[in-house]
Amino acid sequence: MVRITQFNNPRMAQAFVDYMATRGVTLRIEHDGHYVILLDNEGQLEMVENELQQFVRQPDHPRYQAASWHTGNTKSGLRYERSNLWANIRDRAGPLTMTVLFACVAVFILMQIFGDQTVLLWLSWPDGPGQYIQVWRWFSHALLHFSLLHILFNLMWWWYLGGAVEKRLGSGKLFVIMLISALLSGFVQAKFSGIWFGGLSGVVYALMGYCWLRGERDPESGVYLERGLIGFAIVWLVIGWYGAFGLAIANGAHVAGLLVGLAMAFVDTRAVRRR
């Protein structure tokens, strides 16, 4: 019997076991604080290790979901604890993803306590040369959100996409995408509407563009966004541009963020396309 790996998330453990079953490999799960994957046939070890590397890079790929539907057993014996939602959030997100998420929530709470205008005065885009040296202002506008729906929508996408980028490409890559997209999307939006704007959506659109193009040009990176979702993002961008629902949307930031993400993904995958 060979110990292959362990997972904190029982669903991930079961998904890998189900997928390997479709490849003719029988694995077992033992719960000992973690969900340990065991292999009986050592002759299949190399194959299992290769498949595990692919699975860790891209655990949400549809092939694993399809395998669970095809071979999954409702009597797996795994216990799904009630606190598993928080475990799933932490498992998918790295430290930078969670730090920004909590920062947005903290700023939103401050806005409810002190009012939007007060917090805007602290964190908004620089209002003239006198504030240019207040460096945080070039980026802190991304932490501002003006309604519960606004912050929930942005943080959902930030966690989903930012977490994937950080887990697969590292905190440094996510940090660079966040800084560049916040800076450039804020600059463009300020030209459109002045300094009174906020939200993480410029960064979110950058992540959408980055993940989609990175996945198209470099599937082995494990970073991707389904074509249907990038299509939805573009449709929403067009709706916002024409003001179809009468919403106050930072269209300049959205467009700039999307273009930044696409450009960064193109640069990052040039070497891959040459191979």
Topology record:
Blueprint: E1 2-7, H1 10-22, E2 27-32, E3 34-39, H2 45-57, H3 62-71, H4 84-92, H5 95-114, H6 116-123, H7 137-140, H8 148-169, H9 171-193, H10 201-217, H11 227-242, H12 251-268, H13 270-274
Antiparallel strand pairs: 1-3, 2-3
Write a concise keyword list for the protein shown above.
mainly alpha; 3 strands; Rhomboid-like fold; 275 residues; Alpha-Beta Plaits
Structure report:
It contains 13 helices and three strands; from the N terminus they run βαββαααααααααααα. It starts with a strand and ends with a helix. The chain folds into two domains: 2-86, Alpha-Beta Plaits, CATH 3.30.70; 93-274, Up-down Bundle (Rhomboid-like fold). It is 65% helix and 7% strand. The mean pLDDT is 87. The protein has helices spanning 10-22, 45-57, 62-71, 84-92, 95-114, 116-123, 137-140, 148-169, 171-193, 201-217, 227-242, 251-268, 270-274, and strands spanning 2-7, 27-32, 34-39. The chain is elongated, with a radius of gyration of 22 Å. The relative contact order is 0.09. Helix 5 packs antiparallel against helix 8 (148-169), helix 9 crosses helix 10 and helix 10 packs parallel to helix 12 (251-268). A hairpin with a 1-residue loop joins strand 2 (27-32) and strand 3 (34-39).
